[in-house]
Each structure stands twice: as structure tokens, then as C-alpha cells.
Amino acid sequence: MSVKITWLGHSCFAVEADGLRLLIDPYLNDNPAAPIKADKAEADFILLTHGHFDHVADAPAIAKRTGATVLANYEVGEWLKREGVAADKVVQINPGGGVQQPFGRAKFTIAHHSSSTPDGAYGGVPGGFLLELAGKRLYFAGDTALFLDMKLIGLGGIDLAVLPIGDQFTMGPEDAIEAVKFLNPKKTTPCHYNTWPPIAQDAAAWAEDVHRQTAAEAIVVEPGGSFVV
Ligand code: NI
Ligand code: MN
Predict the structure, then answer these.
(1) Residue 128 in contact with residue 158, Cβ under 8 Å?
(2) Residue 89 has what DSSP assignment?
(3) Segment 63-68 mean pLDDT
(4) C-alpha–C-alpha distance, residues 180 and 188, integer Å
(5) Which of 129, 202, 128 minimizes the C-alpha distance to 165?
(6) How far is the CA of 49 from the centre of ligand 1 (A)?
(7) Mean pLDDT estimate for the chain
(8) Which of 60, 114, 163, 164 could form a Cys-Cys staple with 170, CB 3.0–4.6 A?
(9) CA of 178 to the centre of ligand 2 (A)
(10) Count of alpha carbons within 13 Å of 75, Cβ hemisphere only?
(11) What's the CA-to-centroid distance between 1 and ligand 1, angstroms?
(12) Are 164 and 191 in contact (CB under 8 A)?
């Protein structure tokens, strides 16, 4: 079975498999690089890595319109409820924990970053997601620095690693190459770059470095572009 991945700009991805649609970190209406607005986003599940606005801004509206179930850390889950998302549509997790859902399994992995919600409240600890769905293992690192424990995350084999390369707020391109070496994924794609000038990066050059230095296939698409894993 294959999984279709669509980059919606910044750290927002649509994942489609087995007729179910997952949306990671929706930030569309205020993202100058987003190919669609939030009212066009469809989702059965929404996954949030941490509370920063550039990852959660459109999540409450999309969740309320679509009835999607939202997976987030405990504190971001509380924020979703304050924003009017039904409590029975919020699944709260914390690092190291996983949940079985209709699409498969989602495990919340560690990330080195910060987290606060748009209303200024404490946003809990940031994380990433290791997803097992449709026979594939997908790792969305979230906003993070490079960390050695990525070797542990890669132990079971990873079909796709989604890594930030923007620098300043997350790993930059060089550390993201080291992350590919730690994770050893079959494929990797970059995110969290070119949204604003401070995180402008040359993704094609990064992909060339991935191919020179690792065994992974680096896939670079424009916002709105899709590929299959
Ligand atoms: Ni962040
Ligand atoms: Mn961010």
C-alpha cells in the first residue's frame, strides 16, 4: 500500500492512506507560502507537534468544520478545548507515548524546542510523530534541534523522515544531514524553510548533499506538491 504526502508549506503536510486523511501542523491562512486556505483543508485526523502559531493556527477551525480528531500534547489539547474543539475529539499524548487510531499508530517522539499556545499559555513539551500506517513508518520531526536519540527513532526502519532545515528556529541544513545519517530513512523531505526570509534555504542543494552523504532519497516539492511513499 502506498501513502500520499502533500506539502502544504512550512510544516504542514497532508497524509492520505487507506482512504483516511491526516493533516500535520496546519498553518495556512497566515502562511504566505501556503497553496490553500484553511477552509479548503480536509482532514479526518489533525496532528500537532507543539503549540507555536506556525503549527496550530488553523487547527481549531479545521477541526470544528471537519469533525476531525486532533492528536496533541496535553497542554495543546487543553488549548484546543479552550478554542471550542469538542473534548471527545481531542486525544492527548506526551513524549514516549503512542496511541492506536483508525489510521494506525501514532507515537509522540521527543524534540528539542519550545512550546507555548497562541493565547500565551504554557504549551507543554514539543514533539514529533512516528506514524505506522498502511505498512509504512513515517517520522515527522517537528521543530527540533539535532539530537543523538534520532538513532533510536530510526531503529525500526523509517520509510520517510520529514525534517526541518530552516535554521534559526530549528535545525539548519547541515544538522539535518546529520539527522538523516542518524535516522537512516529510505526517503526524506525538508520542511520549515522559505516561509519567511529568515529561514530561506536552498532545498535542492540540501537534497544534493543528502544524496552525496547518505543512502536516502531526498524529495523536494514546491508547496502544494505531492509524492508517494
Ligand atoms: Ni516552533
Ligand atoms: Mn515552527
Answers:
(1) no
(2) G
(3) 98
(4) 8
(5) 202
(6) 9
(7) 98
(8) 164
(9) 20
(10) 19
(11) 32
(12) yes
pTM of the entire structure? 0.98
- 206 C-alpha to ligand 2 centroid (Å): 19
Furthest CA-CA distance within the chain: 48
Domain spans of the chain? 4-228
Q: Supply the DSSP string of 122-163, one letter for each residue.
A: B----EEEEEEETTEEEEE--S----TTHHHHTTT--SEEEE
Q: Which ligand number lies closest to the CA of residue 54?
A: 2
Give CA separation, 91 vs 39, 48, 81, 121, in Å: 23, 11, 11, 19
Length of the chain: 229
Report which of 21, 22, 30 is spatially closest to residue 54, judged by C-alpha positions.
30
Task: Give the amino acid at 171.
Answer: M
51 and 76 in contact (C-beta within 8 Å)?
yes
Q: What's the mean pLDDT in 168-187?
A: 98
| DSSP-derived 3-state class of residue 171 | coil
CATH code of the domain made up of 4-228: 3.60.15.10
Question: Given a cut of 90, is residue 1 above it in pLDDT?
Answer: no
